[in-house]
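USER:
Class, as today's exercise, take the chain set out below, and explain how the chain folds.
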Amino acid sequence: MAANSSQKADSGAPVFVTGAAGHVGANLVRRLLDDGVKLRVLLREEDNNAAMDGLDVERAWGDIRDLDATRRAMDGCQGVYHVAAKISTIEGNLAHRREIYDCNVIGTRNLLRAAREVEAGRVVVTGSFSAVGYDLDNPSAPSEETMIYFPMERTMPYERSKTLVEHECLRAAALGQEVVIATCCAVVGGADFFPSRLGRTLCAYSNGKLRAYIDGGFEFVNVRDIVQGHLLCMEKGRSGQKYIFSTEYLTISNLLNLWEEASGVPRPNRRVPTNLMYVFSEIASFYLSRFHPDFPQRFTPGAIRLLKRCHHANLTKAKTELGYQPTTIRDAVHEAYAFHYHERKAINNPNAKPPRKAAPAAAVATAPDEGARVAAGEGSA
């Protein structure tokens, strides 16, 4: 049985966290600190590490692509959360694809090997819902953890890399290592310092720069829920297993309704046909990836393919084995909006309203049952 976070705190050894500067990592670190856990975080000097400012954490500098540096940074820790990853929805050039592979696949292999060699104990690895298989005859049907990823269609390098990450975890488990995969969906919430792609899109919307939308939907997870999922995996998860953590399935129209509620900025009513947008995105992404690789791309071909699939998640395993109880995306949207408005000061539209006051803790903790959430989400499309 894996030790829980309070037991880790009592052991005196720090818990090791990678990806602490990112969206999930920053929220995980804050939750662990609130629980009294001593932490050592692995950071890269070239990254934006503002998420760690003012926090009582031990900083180690290095890159998971460097096995020796990872081993040195982890030595003396007990318990590992591996959140770091290169996230991308573009095909990119060969250098871009190599970076994804090195960061995600080789980085995970190094991390797991280092954990074995320094005897750091259980490792919880952040997985991706895009690496979960789906029913080929009914792509929108809910997927669960045993469904096999289908590699015979066009997929994003990121999707392929996260599938290989799972293979590395299974390889480590076969060697006797304690490793559990916390499968993450599209993350919504505060403490988004980097910021995330979805956070940037929320800011663009709130600043009046999003004037049209496309059909489709995806599984979204409140960042507080995916953090809770990581803790549950550390405490209760079975080694060699993965667990899907989502909060709600939302259509893009549902999400825009929530953004309008939070910001007061009217949502766009112009809906671009998905197939038309897909053709445009292919042309734009081809050009930008080759000639302006640093230019942010909002609607990429890969992202549109995911949205068109309307992929749902089955949370039965996480709920029954771990006791997972999702909250709501509405609260996550309001927290995200407040963070970008107050902390990052990234919303400068004079027509955007100030964020609402934080809801009482009891209200945030109360969520409708799964059927009610899905029905409410789909009914407002």
